[in-house]
Each structure stands twice: as C-alpha cells, then as structure tokens.
Predict the structure.
Amino acid sequence: MTEKKFRFSVLIKVIFIFILVGITGLMLSQYFLSIFFTNDRLNIITERYNRELYHINFILDNYINQLKYDLKNIVNQDQIIVPDENFSYTHYLTGSREFDFNPGPEERKIMELLENYKISHPQVEYIYIGFHDASFVMNTFFDEGFDYDPRTQQWYKAAIDNPDKLVVTTQ
C-alpha cells in the first residue's frame, strides 16, 4: 500500500494562521476589557457606597448633636443643684441589699425631668447624672447593684476629663 501524504496548501495555512491569530486576539482583548470594566464597575460601586456612607454619617451626626443639645438644656435647668457639704442626692455606696430608696423632693424633680427626657426620646434606655460626692441621680430607681460609685465609671471619668463637653456614651 502506498502512503498518502497530506499537505496543506498555502491558502489553507494562511487561513489557519489568520483564524488562530484572530481567536488569540479576541481572547486577549476580552481578558483586558474584562479587567478594565471590572475596575470601572468597582470604582462606580465604591463611589456609590461612599456617598451613602456620607449621608448616613451626616444623619447620625445630626442625631447625636440633637441629643446633646437636648441634654445640655436639661443640665442647665435650675432644678439640678450640685451637691455640697449641706446637701446630697442618693448614694449607692451602702454595700447592702437592704437599701431604702427615699429620694428627697429635689431629687424627685430631677428624676422626673430625666424620665420626661427618656419618654420623649424612646431610643434612650437610661439617663443619669453622677456627682463628685458619689451621689447619683437616674431617671428611675437604680437597682443594678449596690456599692456603686459613679466616680469609678468610664462615663464619669470621661466627663471629668472633658469638663466643658457633654459626654454621651453607649455604656
């Protein structure tokens, strides 16, 4: 039997090379275009998220500033008297569960003021004021623990460190 040799004509070789180069070019262009458009899409998404975060930050800043403004109005009320050697509010330094909570009329006025704030701001759980003599006034009876000294709390220390600022915490 005689062997047949299969030979490509020059035209077939040129067409084959043309198709191979064309497919390779399309694949490379698709690869680079996908990278370009992916980065472009990522930049667009990043810009949109940054705009949304800016708006959220703006809303939260306004919200916190409104709360601070309202609290400054409470603190500046004539009803809030700073304790001295002749007068004090309730102390929770008894160290005993046998605690008789009996606030005086001044303390009750402050408690009412703080409770009204809480009612008008339902997102606020507690509102309280700690004083230098370890007395403590809250919108309600404080039964979280006895032997409580507000001066040892982070919120009190932050207020002492920033006497000209209203300190708001999530503690």
Observations:
- The chain is about 55% helix and 5% strand.
- The chain has a mean pLDDT of 80.
- Strands lie at 128-130, 136-138.
